[in-house]
Q: What sequence folds into this?
């Protein structure tokens, strides 16, 4: 029989005294995809425990959960294991149907939400986050060399383009995909919060994107993410501030 790795969390039912497993999210604190799942769980008001997973160690027990060796991985209270942030987020939205409905309520709305989620998970992550986070932090963890200034410069240049696009969307809509908060906003916030942690956004040049980020930053679901800290890699001075420059 398989024994779960690391810590196993339990909670006591107040009426029966029976212990059940707590929902568990294996994550890396600056992974935008881990943050995306954390935001969905928080918006859905679902209880969960975080387990930091050092993916560069390629632990056998973790590979049994996800042979790809990547975070996030969600282990449900009944033992169900889910991998890949897109799979996890869609599962949570379908399984827990109470508001907010993060993937929309009609085909046209869902199509636009999925387009933007793909934009931030794919294009933004590839052109911005991979460059900046990869060079500044992941090279250190994976022992693959020192930061490349050309790659860092490309990441910041690409980032400015993406922030302009966020601002353009927010000028025309109440939220990025339409009239209400959706998965598009959470996918974007997950990426942007990582870049902002590293201090790589010049907010004075992107006022409309800043307005959007201040709005989502003030939501209760963002509180734990804004509290993230790593002693050897501290955040920008304004990272947790709701009114910032």
A:
């Amino acid at each position: 029989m398989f024994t779960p790795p690391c810590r196993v969390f339990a909670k006591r039912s107040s009426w029966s005294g029976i212990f059940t497993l707590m929902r568990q999210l294996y994550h890396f604190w600056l992974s935008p995809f881990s943050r995306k799942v954390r935001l969905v769980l928080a918006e859905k008001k679902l209880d969960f425990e975080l387990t930091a997973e050092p993916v560069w160690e390629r632990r056998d027990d973790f590979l049994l959960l996800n042979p790809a060796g990547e975070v996030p991985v969600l282990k449900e209270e009944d033992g169900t294991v889910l991998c890949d942030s897109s799979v996890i987020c869609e599962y949570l939205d379908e399984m827990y149907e109470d508001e907010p409905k993060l993937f929309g309520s009609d085909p046209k709305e869902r199509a636009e939400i999925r387009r933007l989620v793909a934009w931030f998970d794919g294009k933004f992550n590839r052109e911005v986050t991979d460059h900046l986070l990869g060079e500044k932090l992941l090279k250190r963890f994976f022992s693959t060399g020192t930061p490349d200034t050309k790659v860092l410069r490309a990441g910041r240049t690409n980032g400015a383009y993406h922030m302009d696009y966020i601002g353009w969307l927010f000028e025309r809509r109440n939220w990025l995909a339409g009239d209400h908060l959706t998965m598009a906003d959470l996918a974007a916030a997950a990426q942007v919060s990582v870049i902002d942690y590293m201090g790589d956004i010049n907010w004075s040049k992107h006022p409309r994107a800043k307005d959007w980020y201040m709005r989502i930053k003030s939501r209760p679901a963002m509180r734990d993410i804004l509290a993230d800290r790593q002693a050897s890699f501290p955040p920008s001075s304004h990272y947790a501030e709701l009114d910032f420059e």
User: Anything to note?
Assistant: Helices lie at 32-43, 60-65, 85-95, 107-142, 149-172, 183-197, 207-217, 223-226. The beta strands are 10-12, 19-21, 24-27, 49-52, 73-75, 81-83. The two ends are 53 Å apart (CA to CA). The longest helix spans residues 107-142.
